[in-house]
Amino acid sequence: MTERTARPAPAAEAPPRAASDAVPTSVLQPLGRLRPDWPRSFADRLTAPLPGVRALARLAREGAVRPRPEGLRDIPLLPFEPGPLPPAGPGTVAVTWAGHASWILRLGGLTVLTDPVWSRRILGTPARLTPVGVRWEDLPPVDAVVISHNHFDHLDAPTLRRLPRTTPVLVPAGLGRWFLRRGFTRVTELDWWEAAELGGVRFDFVPAHHWSKRTLLDTCRSLWGGWVLTDPTGRRLYFAGDTGYGHWFAEIGRRHPGIDLALLPIGAYEPRWWLRDVHTDPEEAVRAHQDLGARRMAPMHWATFVLSTEPVLEPLTRVRAAWERAGLPREDLWDLPVGGSRVLVP
């Protein structure tokens, strides 16, 4: 049996789960664990088939890869409010959005970067719409980095070159060699539902509805996913990485109950026929938050790079409207500006 599934049946059609069913736990692996025997391909983990020739021809014919001029007019209105990082001791959980999927997470006394991209531009896209929210020289010492997958807007070689090569890096299965070739000495590869611990903080690698590719010859050769970080007191953050909507969110919430904050993508979703399987739109992100059973949600993956055709400010307006329609408390939507921070109060 593989992890690949068809789209899940409606909940009403699913068989009830017995009350005695135990919640599976992730397999704890040692830090620095690398495996030479990963599968040659992880294509069997895809939730949906990758686009074929017909879809690529349609995309070329329609030429719909960037917003129309009127969709770019609101670039000056994109929220950018850099500020100092909040104080964060061992008992503090604080998050700062540097832009796109790059966060500075501070929990359990550690400073963790997610998918760090401090470059002004990445391959195949225009320059950043907003500057990085935190200057690199203003970062505290980085204790660990987590990577969701190998797409250029999530795995940025120029940014990673700025890190000491002794920085612990936690990566999806099959991606360790990329870091070893660049001199990193503390690399941990994890499969879905595996975990590692560093300084009392637990890092669980969980599934996502996405894919991987960095060159013409490496489609799905490494895995993709998100991360659940749990501090010694049990406070829990979920970083989704890059993902479409689907059944994994409910399963992640079942295996990791009590998520205090979910960092979820809300941008890069149009045209929908092209991106539905790999990027949530704002309404789907709110549904994912509910499926997870998370208490709070912080939107990401918007306001930074132009990757699709929706107007640049639309993700924010739509996620706020979806949140209100869902009847969720407004204070639990942490719609931060680029450079903004929030501290999780117990």
Describe the protein in words.
- This protein is of the alpha/beta class.
- It is built from seven helices and 14 strands.
- It has helices spanning 53-62, 157-160, 176-181, 248-255, 272-275, 282-292, 314-325, and strands at residues 27-28, 93-99, 102-107, 110-114, 144-146, 169-172, 187-190, 194-198, 201-206, 226-230, 236-239, 261-265, 296-300, 341-344.
- The strands form two sheets. Strands 1-8-9-10-11-12-13 form a seven-stranded mixed sheet, with helices on one face. The protein has a seven-stranded mixed sheet with strand order 7-6-5-4-3-2-14.
- A hairpin with a 2-residue loop joins strand 8 (194-198) and strand 9 (201-206).
- Helix 4 packs parallel to helix 6 and helix 6 (282-292) packs across helix 7 (314-325).
Count helical runs: 7
Would you report the number of β strands? 14
Helix content: 10-25%
- Structural class from helices and strands? alpha/beta
Q: Identify low-pLDDT runs.
A: 1-20
Distance between the termini: 41 Å
Could you give the order of strands across the largest sheet? Answer: 1-8-9-10-11-12-13
Give the DSSP E fraction (strand runs of 2 or more residues).
15-25%
For the residues shown, what is the average pLDDT? 93
Main sheet: strands, sense, barrel? 7 strands, mixed
Series of H and E elements: EHEEEEHEHEEEEEHEHHEHE
Radius of gyration, Cα only, in angstroms? Answer: 19 Å
Overall outline: globular
